[in-house]
Amino acid sequence: MYVIREMEDGIDDCEKSCLACNDEPVHAWDEAVAFFTGSLEGFDGNGKGKLFRAWSEDLCTYFRTCGEDGDLTTGTSKSNHEILIEFFIGQNSIFLGFCNAAEKSKVKIVSWMKVVMVQGALLYAYKTYNEEFSEEVQAIGAVAMAAVVPYINACEPADADIIYDGLSVGSQRRGVGFKEIKEAFERNYDCPEMGILCSQVGGIFDSDKFEYMKDAEPCKDKPVDNIDTFQADTDTSSASQTSCTLFLIFTMSRFIFSVLR
What we know:
Radius of gyration: 19 Å
Shape: globular
Strand content: under 5%
Distance between the termini: 37 Å
Largest sheet: 2 strands, antiparallel
Structural class: mainly alpha
Number of strands: 2
Order of helices and strands: HHHHHHHHHEEH
């Protein structure tokens, strides 16, 4: 995705510990945010966007992953909340020449983007196998699958085959259904190439009945010896503290730089 390409462009051009050298890399990082958000969101984010941010907002209402704690069906998605924090941290890190910190932000952003792509693939797999046939539903599921299945393939090719065969347009394989696709995803959440958690993905939620759909419930997180293995860390307190600290450093640095200039 071009969002990732622009983040990598900013990091590649970032010059370490150089306050006056990183305007262009910051611009590249800002372009990543623009491609993630899109122009239709409006100034305050309340527009009707068509890109990644808007899709994440929509999916969280199905998976009960809205809100800062990721346990609501309304509001800003947990994924967007985390991604926007990391966009802010990454931007300020590049400006200040903390290039390695920006790389860490990029990795976390990509991990949260995987969460959204898995949600998209699962939702449209559920619709494909439980609702009346729709070319649009099948196409959306195939696009979401194509974005995330290479990561699954790096973990376990057999599971990637199940997902691919079950969600490719016109290639549903006999014996593959929603349950098999869901389990193939879940077996690989803790793989380093995925690095996400069951609780981050959630399950397909029926808001009217206030319960999860049959066979679409969230899986249970596996014990994690080292949370650093998972790039989409669920603990946001340190990220929030980092963003506040960087904001203060960024503001002071901008002021000093403008005076010296």
